[in-house]
Amino acid sequence: MVLQKMNDLRRLIEGGPRKKLVLAAAQDQHSLGAIIKAWKDNIIEPILVGDKEEIENICKSNNYDITGVRIIHEPDIEKSVETAVRIVNSKQADILMKGKIGSATLLRCVLNKEWGLRTGNLLSHFALFEVDTYKKVIAVTDVAMNIAPTLHDKIAIVNNSVECLNKLGYEMPKVAVLGAVEMVNENMQATLDAALLSKMNQREQIKNCIIDGPLAFDNAVSLESAQLKGIKSEVAGDTDLLLMPDIEVGNVLYKSLVFFAKAKVASIILGAMVPIVLTSRSDSEQAKFDSILLAAAASR
Amino acid sequence: MLALGKKHRIAVAWAQDANTIGAINKAVKKGFIEAILIGKITEIIKTCKAEGIDEKNFALVDSDTENKASSEAVRLAKTGDADIVMKGLVGTDKFLRAVMDKEKGLMLPDAVLSYVCALQIPAYHKLLFITDPAVIPFPDLDKKVAMARYSIEMAQKFGIKKPKIALIGATEKMSRHFESSVDYSIMCKMADRNQIKDCIMDGPLDIFLACDKKSIEIKGVETPVNGDADILLFPSLESSNPFYKGLMLFAAGELAGLIRGTEKPVIVMSRSESELSKYYCIALSCLMA
Predict the structure, then answer these.
(1) What is the domain partition of chain A in residue ranges?
(2) How far apart are CA A121 and CA A158, in angstroms?
(3) pLDDT tens digits for B88-99?
(4) pTM: predicted TM-score of the whole model, two decimal places
(5) In this complex, is the C-beta atom of A184 within 8 Å of any C-beta atom belonging to chain B?
(6) % pLDDT > 90, chain A
(7) B164 by DSSP, 3-state: which?
(8) Would you call B186 and A184 a contact, using CB atoms and an 8 Å cutoff?
């Protein structure tokens, strides 16, 4: 099954138990807004960890009704993150979300060896876009976390994303490994890594997906341009997941989709015990809401 | 024997040994070559007499050293007086030095010098081409690509339009620890994208998966080569050379091999090869000329 629109994620969680989302350093207006909305929409059940007074003040001045929401008072920011992570570690919550703290602080806690959320897997960023000009939603990784992934990292990033897509109902997601060209070029490492990933997929060293690459962006998402170039590929023109060669390409693509193509976006961090919602302050409330929705669907 | 359109002229460098003269004589008698034997004429005539071969079957050119004989053979090919060059009793390194000479040699511009050979093995259902059992010790990616193209080209001369080429390793898995498996994965993608044309390529594959359908079934590996390889491309000289020699010795193999990367066919054979294999090499060179 393939997701056409971001809202299709709701279908995945309908009827299931509400996932518990713990917000670390919860005194954050933007996060609270999205969380309350998701709570009202029966998508998640929030647990707020942070300065109780501040949280209540924010909710009051924004008319957020939080009657019945569990709040754990912890005014110290670092400690509130630790508390939130420990709650997840002890299986009392299904999703971790970043509030009013830097990403670095949150990730440091996530990677804590004693009470963190390590699984042994690489952490990677996974983004889902809804663009009017593509026939379905398209996942993109990694646009925000791994700077210059090696082949080894790329394997881990693909595995993280494929596992997530499998949970979202994609049995065999089609993965396009992006390059500037669809040809193998010895001077472009991305094209060489793409060839290796394709072969590892053929040999079932990377499972549960169909990988092809290098593919240039146009032939990854447009069957017409793939056909014009004479590319024979199961993935070309029908990509479910785009694997970026590095963060520069990924981040620029992400932002161009949002700013120029007015894409809807949802994003989470994968590779930890649970999905982590790590949106930035500049993300819209809609993006935060959709990220929570994605995390809930991915934690099934 | 494939039908050949015209008679080719072979220049043989330092053609003083019975084995070479015997193979050449057989081809001359079959009527598909004319031969120019270069070396000490007195020695050549002496060898012919001892073998009961009429030296008038050949054109003879006098030359008093191995190096001069090699250069002369190459010169004849360069000027068009010969179509094929063959190594006689001269050492391979001396002979190839003349072939590879930057000004007077026979190398195509920027070409990789390599070797492809066709093996006839009673236990296999068709000819098996292998590369490179003789010239490149450790081919890098570019050289492997050149080897693939040369072997495809040769298989095509035998009428195989889209040869199946297996890139040989110890296992079929991609592992960064085996450099060849990395190169092979890249090559397969190049074949996908038509950067290497006119072939069905897969690798890494071990020889069982390359040449034995039963192994494919047992292992459950999906491969377009499907146990029916026409060509085996090896990761190194140390793997390919023992492979073909083992087949010659233990599996009654016969071969026909040729240097590639030159303007005109160049025949290099080791002295220990049988007269039949030498004869096949001459026939192959005519096919490729």
Answers:
(1) 8-118+272-298, 124-259
(2) 11
(3) 989 888 999 999
(4) 0.90
(5) yes
(6) 95
(7) strand
(8) yes
